[in-house]
Amino acid sequence: MLTKEVAANVRAVRAKRGVTQEGLAEVSVQKAVSQLEQAKVKVSLEKLQLLATALDFDLVALVALCVSLERGENPEDSLKQAAQVLESFRAEGGMDILALHYQTGNLTKRSRGKPANLANLKKVLDLKAEGLSQAETARRLGLTSAAVSRYWRKG
């Protein structure tokens, strides 16, 4: 997935920046960079970030270039589509849910077992913030008092 597109873009950015494969030694050995540029290996997002940094190139722009090649469109259209998806995500409360999983630069710990229903968790915490009691919250949302109590403690 995107292996050829990553290879082409890393080649192009490296050539534009005047960086040799050996110049990326801080990221990987020359042989590994060569294999990546021949689309013989897949690259992790972490490795792509390291390459972008070593090439002094924005990671989001690099990903947009790769996606645009794969879709056969220009990078600006890929970024516009991504912006629309992000706006929908934000409008649907996605950023609030994301904040439950990633706080102050750290991934929040998750309890074992089935993950919480994040939509219900958000609703419960919103009603808690409004000052409703657990019983009122359970009635309003149609949840059991035990479920509300679990969500209540998380916030």
Task: Write a structural description.
By secondary structure, this protein is an all-alpha fold. It has two domains: 3-82, lambda repressor-like DNA-binding domains (434 Repressor (Amino-terminal Domain), Orthogonal Bundle); 90-155, Arc Repressor Mutant, subunit A (Orthogonal Bundle), CATH 1.10.10. 65% of the residues lie in helices and 3% in strands. It contains nine helices and two strands; from the N terminus they run H-H-H-H-H-H-E-E-H-H-H. The chain has helices at 3-17, 30-37, 45-54, 59-71, 75-91, 94-101, 118-129, 134-141, 145-154, and strands at 102-103, 106-107. A two-stranded antiparallel ribbon has the order 1-2. Helix 4 (59-71) packs across helix 5 and helix 7 packs across helix 9. The chain starts with a helix and ends with a helix. The relative contact order is 0.08. The mean pLDDT is 91.
Please report the total strand number as a whole number.
2
Q: What share of the residues lie within helices? A: 55-70%
- Count of helical stretches: 9
CATH architecture of the largest domain: Orthogonal Bundle
> Please, what is the CATH homologous superfamily of the largest domain?
lambda repressor-like DNA-binding domains
Residue stretches low in confidence (pLDDT < 50, at least 5 long) are none
What is the count of structural domains? 2
The strand order across the widest sheet is 1-2
Spatial gap, N to C terminus: 39 Å
Averaged pLDDT, please?
A: 91
What is the global morphology?
elongated
Q: Mind telling me the C-alpha Rg? A: 22 Å
Here the CATH topology of the largest domain equals: 434 Repressor (Amino-terminal Domain)
Estimate what percentage of residues fall within beta strands.
under 5%
H/E element order:
HHHHHHEEHHH
